[in-house]
Automatic annotation (TrEMBL):
The keyword Magnesium applies. One of its GO terms (cellular component) is nucleus. Residues 71-219 form the 3'-5' exonuclease domain. SUPFAM superfamilies: Ribonuclease H-like. It holds the Pfam family DNA_pol_A_exo1. The lineage of its organism: Eukaryota, Amoebozoa, Evosea, Variosea, Cavosteliida. GO terms for molecular function: 3'-5' exonuclease activity; metal ion binding; nucleic acid binding. This is 3'-5' exonuclease. It is found in: Nucleus. Residues 261-271, 301-314 have a biased composition (Basic and acidic residues).
Length: 314
């Protein structure tokens, strides 16, 4: 029996002791995975959630050191009530998917909050940053401050892989996996004490796709990067991509602010120029300044024409 099989069997036994729902999905993309649904306070005793997510991740990536075990990249997703309230939070490695029924619990367990706020845990998905905002809005009293999110569409867009922003399209394009259909049997299926197996598969697959899309991009893009001397781990690569996105946002914000300041200074120097005449599509400082100068030249010519006309009239 492999180490992964032993860990899976251990999890099954521990789940049975705590009356945790366990599901498998033979014949699907999730056939090698096990899904557990956590919906009672007892399920979060003794660090149960973090322990097994870390254990499965470490085995899958061959990262035995304590330091590396703290570094996780997890698939992440949320499901909502018809009123837009978060009722289910999902986390995934390749072989373990965890569904946390926060709607049924009426709160977000401390162990889940720790995962969301841990800067050594990267949560990957499509629309995952928006999901984090919805968690904050759904449970404002908890003052949750999610930290590290790997937005799949940022990477596919910046690497000219796809401009799609939809999980279905990206999964089909990159993994060749289609998303399952939601099989609602009630208005809010995520608060059911025993969720329908079809809905469990739907929710589990969303998180599993978030993880596997990130992993596939990592394998593909690092293989293409021949200049790299050191092989980065999935965590290191994901963290670097997040840092790049944040730096690009910061640089663009600074550029826009600088452009606005320089344009204002130029406007004051050039005189009577209507700021509304500047094309809002301008993307750089040079574009703004060039428009200002053209406008100034036009204004100067108009003034000359008016002066000449006045002289002729006199």
């Amino acid at each position: 029996m492999s180490a992964l099989d032993k860990l899976t069997e251990e999890l099954r036994q521990k789940a049975a002791e705590r009356f945790i729902s366990v599901e498998t999905f033979p014949g699907t993309a999730l056939r090698d995975s096990i899904t557990i649904a956590l919906c009672e306070d007892d399920h979060f005793r003794d660090g149960f959630l973090r322990h097994y997510l870390s254990a499965f991740y470490a085995l899958e990536h061959g990262t035995p050191s304590d330091k590396e075990k703290r570094h996780l990249v997890l698939g992440f997703d949320c499901e909502f009530s018809r009123h837009g309230v978060v009722e289910l939070i999902q986390f995934s490695t390749n072989h373990l998917i965890v569904l946390v029924q926060v709607g049924l619990l009426g709160t977000v367990p401390e162990e889940v909050i720790e995962l969301l706020e841990d800067d050594q845990v990267i949560l990957s998905g499509v629309g995952c940053i928006n999901d984090s905002f919805f968690i904050q809005q759904s449970f404002p009293q908890l003052m949750i401050r999610p930290r590290s999110f790997f937005e799949i569409s940022n990477v596919t867009w910046s690497n000219a892989i796809s401009k799609a922003l939809d999980l279905n399209q990206l999964s089909d394009l990159i993994l060749g996996v289609e998303k399952s259909e939601l099989k609602k049997k009630s208005a809010d299926p995520w608060k059911a004490r025993f969720m329908d197996k079809g809905n469990i598969e739907y929710a589990a697959r969303d998180a599993w796709l978030g993880y596997n899309l990130c992993r596939k991009l990592y394998l593909t893009l690092t293989a293409q990067n021949k200049s790299s001397k050191k092989k980065e781990s999935l965590y290191e690569w994901s963290a670097a991509r997040i840092a790049t996105v944040e730096q690009n946002k910061k640089t663009r914000a600074e550029s826009i602010e600088r452009a606005a300041m320089e344009a204002e200074a130029e406007r004051e120097q050039l005189g009577r120029i209507d700021a509304s005449s500047i094309n809002p599509a301008a993307e750089s400082v040079d574009d703004v300044i060039e428009q200002m100068r053209k406008r100034a030249a036009t204004t100067t010519e108009d003034d000359k024409d008016k002066k000449k006309k006045k002289e002729n009239e006199e």
